[in-house]
Design a protein that fits this description.
The complex is a heterodimer.
Chain A (H helix, E strand, L loop, with lengths): L6 H15 L3 E8 L6 H11 L5 H14 L16 H6 L6 E6 L3 E7 L7 H9 L3 E7 L6 H12 L5 E6 L8 H15 L7 E5 L23 H7 L12 E8 L7 E5 L4 E3 L3 E5 L3 E9 L7 E3 L3 E6 L10 E3 L6 E12 L10 E6 L2 E15 L4 E3 L9 E14 L6 H4 E5 L6 E11 L20 H8 L5 E5 L6 H14 L4 E5 H6 L9 H20 L3 E5 L5 H11 L4 E6 L3 H7 L4 H6 L21 E3 L6 H14 L5
Parallel strand pairs in A: 1-3, 1-4, 4-5, 5-6, 22-24, 22-25, 23-24, 25-26
Antiparallel strand pairs in A: 2-3, 7-8, 7-14, 8-13, 9-12, 10-11, 10-14, 11-13, 15-19, 15-21, 16-17, 16-20, 17-18, 17-19, 20-21
Chain B lengths: L10 H19 L3 E4 L4 H14 L8 E4 L6 H14 L4 E4 L2 H5 L4 H25 L3 E3 L16 E4 L27 E4 L7 H10 L11 E8 L2 E4 L14 E6 L10 E4 L5 H10 L17 H8 L3
Parallel strand pairs in B: 1-2, 1-4, 2-3, 4-6
Antiparallel strand pairs in B: 5-6, 7-8, 7-9, 8-10, 9-10
Classes of the chains: A alpha/beta, B alpha/beta.
Bound molecules: guanosine-5'-diphosphate.
Chain lengths: ~650, ~300
Amino acid sequence: MATRPSAAASTSMLDTWLATHERKELLRFLTCGNVDDGKSTLIGRLLIETDSVPQDVLAAVQRDSKAQGTQGEKTDLAFLTDGLKAEREQGITIDVAYRTFATGKRRFILADTPGHEQYTRNMATGASTAELAIILIDARSGVTIQTRRHAFITSLLGIRQVIVAVNKMDLVGFDESRFRAVCDEFRAFAAKLPERPEHMVPLSALDGDNVTTISSRMPWYRGKSVLELLETVPVDAALNHVNFRFPVQLAVRPTSDFRGLAGTIASGCIRRGDHVLALPSGRATRVARIVTMTGDVDEAIAPQAVTLALVDEIDCSRGDMLCAPHDRPTVSDHFEATIVWMDEDPLMPGKEYWLKHGPVETPVVVSRLVHRVDIDTLTPRPTPSLELNAIGRVELRTAKPLAFDPYGRNRGTGAFILIDRLTNATAGAGLIASSDIGHWLDTAQGELRPSLSTVTHGEREARFGQRPATILLTGLSGAGKSATARALERLIFDLGRVCVVLDGEGVRAGLSRDLGFSAADRSENLRRAMEVARTLNDAGIIAICAFVAPQDDVRRRCRELIGDQRFITVHLAAPLDACRKSDPSGVYREASAGRLRDIPGIDVIYEPPVDPDLSLPSHELDPAVCAERVLSLLRKREIVA
Amino acid sequence: MLQNGHRPLHHLDLLEAEAMHIIRETVASFERPVMLYSVGKDSTVMLHLARKAFFPGRLPFPVLHIDTGWKFREMYAYRDRYVRDELGIELLVHRNADGVKAGVGPITHGSRVHTDLMKTVALRQALDLHRFDAAFGGARRDEEKSRAKERVFSMRDTKHRWDPKSQRPELWNIYNTRIRPGESVRVFPLSNWTELDVWLYVRRESLPVVPLYFAKERPVVERGGTLIMRDDDRLPLHAGETTTQKKVRFRTLGCYPLTGAVESDAETLDEVILELIASRFSERQGRVIDHDASGSMEEKKREGYF
Ligand SMILES: Nc1nc2c(ncn2[C@@H]2O[C@H](COP(=O)(O)OP(=O)(O)O)[C@@H](O)[C@H]2O)c(=O)[nH]1
């Protein structure tokens, strides 16, 4: 062995090393692909090329690989990641396995999940803690049903960045046009999901092309390798840094004069002296100290685990939540959620489960099963129950009110699990869809009976020469909703027909003067507009409604309120980039300057309608053209002649 | 830079926060938690994280050492000096009394029987005796291939058995802690840590560790390619074997006749970390019990070995 360097010399060597390596960022990511798309091979290659496989492990893999492998003399890299014996003998991975590796820049935790379509639950599990997903596609087969599932589930679980790895490029002769075709196919499907950055990489995992270094066999590819992407995409994209939420895990009371609240900051940040509100009590106080074993600190951010001492001795314990006084989560016992079902016993409406949300555990009843999502087409379907690996929408009523935010806005406070009361199995994963159900389902007080009109629908149709309808123009801010609404109004008016335009700003200026832009307020704003639209429709008049209406469930309630026959959804599908560029009302500029929050597409999800009556690329079309298209739909539906 | 003007947290901070969250969640949800303490570096880090989680309060659970009677002498000395005297923590020590009476040891009975009776059975006895319903362990997913799929909260039936088919999915940081009477869980707060993370954390937090981790001239016997330290004269020499002084250290600590030493010059923590960075060997290779057959760790887990 070489002569020992002096202790001082090694300490300074280590200091140099630590300066670059100790303070690495951590990126959690997920890999998904069909069986045999080459996922294990890709992971094996990432591990080997980042020097993360100890020599003895590699030797064991080479031994196993010779005995049972599929690659002849080449080492079957899949053996590096296949863990449990029974699974290995069956030649499949049947669960989520976590691997760690590091490069000079970052430390990674990767969740490896299998590609079988029945294992939606494992993918949801792996995705729940990931910030990025690698979706593998075999270049020969292109986008399959499973690819769609992977795209949908990762999107649903809040993964905001994706690497689409088109693998086995060696088997299609490294052909650029084949790669482009697969990318186009993927983008066409992904357009139905909320927007997120998608990096497309052509790959040969087996030979290592574009895995850690750029391949000379695909000179036409100008992007980064998979590893370079992993090292450079933003970390923490899945975390909410704005809204302070602190679910109290337990009270720490070592002596009679100290009481601290211990917990993990779910989102946002907190400083000593900040005003806070305890929920559900609503009691206000301030943070006196942020206590850690190495001394008090001035501030702390998500997801640190800290102990807060408050100025006033307020009643607050496990299950309560601290938040900023001006920025509260919703507190409700009745809300809507998307459920990924994970149990052999199907989810049944009316059945009672345990719900665990942060530290809160409470009985919960599924008050309504709204629909199941057909994952392959993304369309809702009626269903009596949710089977294992199904995804659906439910309404829930909890025994205790919860303090929560919609999952799309806050992963830390929008997620929960359902537990079977008999078997204690983790039966479902829940993503809170919106703020509470608000007034949509309220029944009016007392026996209200509107007076009956003597004028019939037929008489009105004859008078106005039209059948009444409500047209909802939905889209991002800047997508051209108001302009299209006014152009359509002009067309209808010029035909001699009768219509009224309701738009977001107009309604907010009057009827909804008291409302802001939170999800709950947006929902209520739309509910009021729909009540007006229904009244107009009852009077025989066409209502043209121009609202962002970012949430799918709220749009569904609109449809229910107006009636399926009369309701028309038109999606003005200008993508975010285009809206941002034109930015007619300046909201995006304001948002990026930090002066505006709750902007759909920016810090709130805009859920594109999956099944609109009409979808128009409004960034490429003039509002007048959009209006023409809507009008021809109205003609087709015999609303106007 | 994050939206709120902060830098993202670094990996040790994130791993620390995650472990504290898990430890607190266990204490809030179970009636009788216990922390298994093996005297090694992982246990030491885990214990430190637990102290942080409840600071300024005291540790709300006891610490349990399953003693096979064959640990290195320096381990016992460190345990009593650091955990019991310096930290003043309630330390329970359990030995399988039947095993002791029958004279079970690694030399007379072989590693399998010894490990089974003095570790696996002893652990079950201790958990049953005190009716512990949650036991923290310092295992990490990077230690061994089959551990990659282990949950943070790992369910054990009334016989302490682990069934890889009935483990619960774990989403976000929400843990299902509901169990039936007689069932228990093993909780692994260090699941996502690597050996390097542990050492970097030991350094960052200035934690004392057993000196056996640092290289020193020690009396060793070479046996089947493994260097075994002769910690006392219960280790008989086979024909032709001699004890030689070699500069060695240990990457993991266990029963001394079953724990291989590695030749090394790393006398200080910093040198150990540097050596680890430079080396490409996984630490478990020093453990004789894992060599039996590929997949043997899993079999042990099913039987209730930690
Ligand atoms: N030709 C070629 N074969 C590959 C490539 N990547 C993986 N394979 C092979 O495809 C098969 C399935 O790969 P594996 O990684 O086990 O797939 P998994 O089921 O997705 O984990 C194996 O035989 C691999 O060697 C590639 O880029 N090119």
